[in-house]
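Lab notebook: predicted structure, single chain.

Context: the supervisor wants predicted structures on file for every construct in the current expression panel, including those that have not yet been purified. This is the next one on the list. No modifications to the sequence; it matches the entry in the shared construct table.
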Amino acid sequence: MKIVGLSGSLRAGSYNTALLKSAREAISERLELKVYTLHDIPLYDGDKESSEGIPWRVKELKEELISSDGLLIVTPEYNHSIPGVLKNAIDWLSRPPEEIKRVFGDRPVALMGASPSGFGTVLAQEAWLPILRTLGMKPWFGKSLHVANADEVFDHAGKITDARISLQLQQFMQGFQSFIEAQPAGAMSERPQPSLHS
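Prediction complete. Output recorded below exactly as produced.
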């Protein structure tokens, strides 16, 4: 079973990228979590799409998503909403529109995030829900993970130092894995395999 994980921050010392990498360490042996950041993805431009096509980095991510069993979005919260870099990547991945179902349709998705603020990423995660619904995904609501005061949770190497957060992360990943496994029989095996020409 494979999950694609997207960090919505480009910062080298990103708490969200650190959280995503920690999630990879918290999963069972039956699960593979592939960690991706969003560097090398240009701002969406319809003229650029028409003249140059889909950027290679977007094509790469799209193929990974198509062959995955689920998507884990790790979102920062900027100005009480979603980060532009992450929304931009999703916008690119939804192009052309006729491929939305193939890339996103009925795919399990989970949200988590980290923030230095005391409120975590509650508003950002809520803001993602209409977008995920529009794309036809299956959000998992079994547990929530909003890592607040992230500067006190991670050390300088990006490792979680708070045992309570480590346990919550492990339970979160176990729950998401169970949600994926509970999908209708054959749903994962019937997903289209990646095409080199999409």
